[in-house]
Amino acid sequence: MEFDDDTARAIEALRRERGLGLSEAVNELVRRGLLDPQTRPPFRQRTAPLEIGIDVSSVADALEVLDGATAS
Q1: Is residue 25 classed exposed, middle or buried when 0-12, 13-18 and 19+ CB atoms within 10 A define those classes?
Q2: Which residues have CB under 8 Å from 3's CB, separation 6+?
């Protein structure tokens, strides 16, 4: 089994810290990931005013405006 560099570092750190074997350390890290989903902040979609001057609530209308602007 191959691990990414960051994962390998976490495994080695845990092995040194707690004197675990490879399988024990991997299992411990997997369990942490499965059992503690609250450590990540909830996803928040960020928005910002675009100030583009056209209504983009209708994709078809927005494309018509944009295509008309380039065709002129």
Answers
A1: buried
A2: 11
**Stated pTM of the model:** 0.49
Other Cβ atoms closer than 10 A to 71: 6
Q: List, for residues 24-44, the tens digit of each pLDDT value.
A: 999 999 998 887 666 677 889
* pLDDT of residue 63 exceeding 90: no
Q: Where exactly are the structural domains of the chain?
A: 5-39
CA atoms within 13 A on the CB side of 33: 8
> Which residue type, as a one-letter code, is found at position 23?
S
